[in-house]
Write the structure tokens for this entry.
Amino acid sequence: MFTDDTIAAISTPLGEGGIGIVRLSGKDSILIAERIFTSPKNKTLKDAKSYRVIYGFIKDPITGKEIDEVLVTVMRAPHSYTREDVVEINCHGGMVTLRKTLELVLKQGARLADPGEFTKRAFLNGRIDLIQAEAVLDLIRSKTDESRRVAIEQLQGGLSEKVTVLRDRLTELCAHVEAYIDFPEDEIETASKQKMLGSMKEIERELQKLLTTYDEARFFREGLSTAIVGRPNVGKSSLLNALLQKDRAIVTEIPGTTRDVIEEYLNINGLPLRIMDTAGIRAVRDIAEKEGVRRSLQSIENADLVIPIFDSSEPLLDEDFEVIGKIKGKNVIVVMNKCDLPAVVDKVELNSFLAPNNTNIISISATRGDGLEELKEMIFNTCLKDWKEERERVVVTNLRHKISIENAKVSLERAITVLIENQPLEIFAFELRDSLDRLGEIVGAVTTEDILNKIFNDFCIGK
């Protein structure tokens, strides 16, 4: 991979702000920035000490016109984010000056950075491993304080250290087996065989512990996908607005007002809830509303949690029973809305049509706010049963990591079987090495260009 050139990008969000940053990284960063920078006190960037801020102006070297009044920071290799020479030009916020400054930098020989290329260089230059690189993106995208804490722990190397320890133990086993392969006249002694089996089974248990954290920990990275479903006019949009405490969805008495899935994020005790208000489920002929119903049904299939909502002030209708049929087998919290009105349907009657012993039923009034705090607590406790225990140890939040750990565990289980059945040592060594390589994929010790591109293309340009 060619990383010998110098890259540049705007590293702050688009729009107006107090400052905006143009960042450069590469061997010619200081030289390129020097060509467009002037200091009133005749200070030069090439003589600047690392991490010192220098005041001056960005000027077009051809016309001599001043573009902006800036502060420039030089960070010399290897003590920088990318372990290359890095220059950050702090301009006044606003896209005109930032883009003009970036244009000048590119004209002087820099290349526009690809998405995530600064972090990719940090990985390729050995400053961070692949888990930490992905944690940078998780930190940027974190929606709650708890999400931020989980990302920081990954960035600081908690999972990396755990995986590295397991890889070291597998490496030791591999070396032990290779020694027996090199000297075929020696057989593995019973005591050594039992010790190896014990070590592998212990590693297998550690891998399983990591896997058990994923189902809950991933919610803090991706958000808990939650679909509010029900027939028209039971209060789906009213519930969304009440939870968000703002008028996000249009609420009317006309059935079919909501025709598409409306998605928002909600913070419940640090859990980012990716909540979706869906179109009312009913038989329709209108093409647009029919598509809305199709998307509602799709949301039920894909959601981590489904909140079916029923109107307790009216008898159950055919559309309600259709909803009940669609949510079977799903993780659900049943909401009985409009508890501020005289009840026609109670929890006992509704529960008789649901899954046996369904205790997740709550009565609320979306318009008045009754029961909303209890609903939030129920959502958190239903979906994060073991989170307190899992927070005491390293957790897995990334699907890529989970798949690699699963594959490593499968290879290790095969290696255990091979050793117990006294199959050839070459097969045993192959399975051990495969398990080792699978764990190596997580931290980037074993990787491919395709994997790197997939990971870093999700980043914004400039990070």
